[in-house]
Amino acid sequence: MRIGQGFDAHRFKPGGRLVLGGVEIPHDQGLEAHSDGDVLIHALCDAILGALALGDIGQHFPDSDDDFKGIDSRRLLRQVMTLIGERDYRIQNADLTLIAQQPKLAPYIQAMRELLATDLQTDIDNLSIKATTTEGMGFTGRGEGIAAMAVVLIDKRS
């Protein structure tokens, strides 16, 4: 078994789409990023890559490469899952946390779990997604952006 952890944060920008865990969330701001800015998936990719000792998302999908401009982060996650499969590992479980003051995310958590469980090729019971605020403290509390943390446990396929 191997464990990995990931973290990502993006600042809000006026307009644009807000996509978290592959789900488009109605909001008056999007996230500034080279890709679609899905901080939850970016943290998840980093956790998986960390468990595999393969670096981070920026090494595999650099923001200097126009091929990744505006890309759907679920495509990046599926590419990371190809790496996990090539090494004969699988997701045992994943625990993800979104950190945002706004918007309220609870209504979208189940849809995120369903999409990501599919991409992770695991049962939905192996995937936890939570959302929390920072009670008005820090950049997320001031509504300047959103952050996400992820922890994954992988093991060899038997």
UniProtKB/TrEMBL annotation:
PROSITE patterns: ISPF
Domain of life from the UniProt record: Bacteria
One Gene Ontology MF term: metal ion binding
Binding site for a divalent metal cation: D8, H10, H42
Broadest EC class assigned to this enzyme: lyase
Binding site for 4-CDP-2-C-methyl-D-erythritol 2-phosphate: 8-10, 34-35, 56-58, 61-65, 132-135, 139, 142
InterPro entries: MECDP_synthase, MECDP_synthase_CS, MECDP_synthase_sf
Site label Transition state stabilizer, positions: H34, T133
Domain 2-C-methyl-D-erythritol 2,4-cyclodiphosphate synthase: residue ranges: 1-154
Cofactor: a divalent metal cation
EC number: 4.6.1.12
Function: Involved in the biosynthesis of isopentenyl diphosphate (IPP) and dimethylallyl diphosphate (DMAPP), two major building blocks of isoprenoid compounds. Catalyzes the conversion of 4-diphosphocytidyl-2-C-methyl-D-erythritol 2-phosphate (CDP-ME2P) to 2-C-methyl-D-erythritol 2,4-cyclodiphosphate (ME-CPP) with a corresponding release of cytidine 5-monophosphate (CMP).
HAMAP family: IspF (MF_00107)
Assembly: Homotrimer.
Family to which this protein belongs: Belongs to the IspF family.
Name of the protein this chain belongs to: 2-C-methyl-D-erythritol 2,4-cyclodiphosphate synthase
Natural source organism: Thiohalophilus thiocyanatoxydans
